[in-house]
Amino acid sequence: MKRRNFIKNAALSSAGLVVGGSMVGCVENPSEENKTELVAPTTKASLPMVIATWHVIDATAKAMEVLQAGGNALDAVEQGCRVEEANEKGQSVGKGGLPDRDGNVTLDACIMDKHGNCGSVVYLQNITHAVSVARKVMENTPHVMLAGEGAKQFAISEGFKPEDLLTEASKEAWEKWKVESKYKPIINIENHDTIGMLAIDKNGDISGACTTSGLAYKLGGRVGDSPIIGSGLFVDNEIGACVATGLGEEVVKTVGSFLVVELIRQGKTPQEACEEAISRIVNKPNSNFTDFQVGYIAVNKKGETGSYAIHQWFSMTKFQDGKNEQIQSDFFNKV
Ligand code: SD4
After folding, report:
1. Between these two residues, 41 and 276, which has the higher pLDDT value?
2. Which of 81, 194, 219, 242 to mutate to test the pocket of ligand 1 (most atoms within 8 A of CB)?
3. Domains of the chain: which residue ranges?
4. 180 falls in which pLDDT band (50, 70, 90)?
């Protein structure tokens, strides 16, 4: 599908869509219903600020509320991600997430602070707020990552209440998939809304978090990029931070978020760094990039941001300078 058609087909929010960067010239005749506001790319950066993958204005609003009340970036990203984890309508995160092919909802999440400390949970079941469990791993254990039953028991010992995460809507979708797919996992089938969030607080300190139910109808036991420090998320408080969404296998193979931060360290803007990290994926020999999506969002120490994706429509939500808005990303589309 051509880029223009992705734009037309995308369901835009009532909050309006702000188009930045080089996509501006590509939007044509937006209807009244799908009204598109065109704005010049923002160059001025101010703090505090927060960005997140996809259209999650309630989550970024929560994070900004924390920042404006004097909270730090770590509290902001945790609280922001929790909004989407609790939102049962979001079928890629927390409660209501689409299950694996056997009907089990399994969550991956991680968090990273300004000191480079990190915590992560993989294959966590029955606990909605995986990002908060990841924070507890970081703060209350000598470890970085807990998996499966051990992660769940740790969460319970920390006071988290176990619950059934498979909602009726996700169960119905899974049952329909079972009939239609003949039980064969298909890559990149879900509507993405894994939330990855990066924030800079008023002191200029950066933190990040990422939380997901992973790929819909994945094989039991599958873990993606989102809880892998350096792949799904990386924060270097002296340089910047990056978080990924999309097909985790491809992000892991290129250690994507670490790569983006290292490219910023070498002098690239966050936008250039995201584009370079995407080019590492699409330029691999025999890359089948037209079959999947990967998207990165990144920020540097100054609060300048970038976002870029492969092949399909992508956006980030940015709360900065008093504006909480969805920003459409450019994407690689050599189809
Ligand atoms: C994963 N990266 O598990 C996640 C999926 C995702 O929006 O981002 N979905 O591979």
Report:
1. 276
2. 194
3. 42-332
4. confident
The three-point CA angle 230-328-202 to 5° equals: 60
Give residue 77 CA to ligand 1 midpoint distance, Å.
18
CB 73 within 8 A of CB 114: yes
In this prediction the pTM is 0.86
Residue 100 CB neighbours (<10 A): 22
Least confident residue range of 6-10, 67-71, 265-269: 6-10
**Fold adopted by 42-332:** Glutamine Phosphoribosylpyrophosphate, subunit 1, domain 1 (3.60.20)
Three-state DSSP class for residue 114: coil
Return all residues near 60 (Cβ < 8 A) that are at least 6 apart: 50, 51, 52, 80, 197, 317, 318, 319, 324
Catalytic center residues? 194
Which residue from 119, 88, 120, 92 is spatially nearest to 106, judged by alpha carbons? 92
